[in-house]
Amino acid sequence: MSKEARYGLLYSEYEYSSYVRIQSEKCCIIVACFPILAMIFCILYSVLFNFEGAVYTHCDVYNWLPSISAAIGSFSPQREVWQSAVTIQAIPRFFYAFQYLQFHYSLLYPHDFWIAQVAFFLSMVENIALILLSFFVSSQYYSVHKKAFITFIISSEVYMILTCILQSRFKKQFRISLKWKKRFLTTNLIFIVVAVYFFMRHNSFCEPYVYSLFALAEYIVVFSNMAFHSTAFFDFQNKDFVIYKHGFTLTER
């Protein structure tokens, strides 16, 4: 073997060993599991070990479920578990936002690409707002937490609507993904209305259990949002998430 061929072989082996390749479907599941499992842990741990403090409200009436803000931000180790999960999933979420932008660019440009750009911007805002409301907890930074939560809700709702509009233009290509996106979006919108109703009723009448019904509706809002983002499983099938020494990308399998 010549010196050039030997060098080329060694170089190829070095290149092959310098990256990690993960199936995109598995990556989506892993990323989705962090906030889902962290949320379940925070709720259960709060009910089992911090029940009185977690369900307490200014009305001082009996409740049996904590709000999400209380479950993820008022106690330890729940706060640290949730913050760790949000931090871990943040970078992949930003990455998938860029991938969706490129994906929609290839399908839409030059027609209606502005919708994809707005959706991309809202996805970034949603992720940043999630990070802020997770670290600026309501018990210590109520004003910041409240603004971040409202920003998260508005940006996530508009993002989900725009994504469904974009993918409706290509129903055959996104048939399964779009079907589940619409289901999760509908669930999300319905339970936002339900959550607002129970929250206002709780503040107006201070009835027992009403705040728990608000908390339950709030859980469904958050889990349906997570489920919506998990439909990336269908959108990026047959692709691999490749981590290089100096970056990462999605490639065809």
Automatic annotation (TrEMBL):
Membrane topology according to the record: Multi-pass membrane protein
Keyword Membrane (UniProt): yes
Record carries keyword Cell inner membrane: no
Entry's Gene Ontology cellular component terms: endoplasmic reticulum membrane; Golgi membrane
Main location: Golgi
Domain of life: Eukaryota
Domain CWH43-like N-terminal: 28-238
Pfam families: Frag1
This protein's UniProt keywords: Golgi apparatus, GPI-anchor biosynthesis, Membrane, Transmembrane, Transmembrane helix
Transmembrane regions: 27-48, 113-136, 148-165, 185-203, 209-228
Any Gene Ontology biological process: GPI anchor biosynthetic process
Subcellular location: Golgi apparatus membrane
Family according to the record: Belongs to the PGAP2 family.
Protein name as catalogued: CWH43-like N-terminal domain-containing protein
Organism this protein belongs to: Psylliodes chrysocephalus
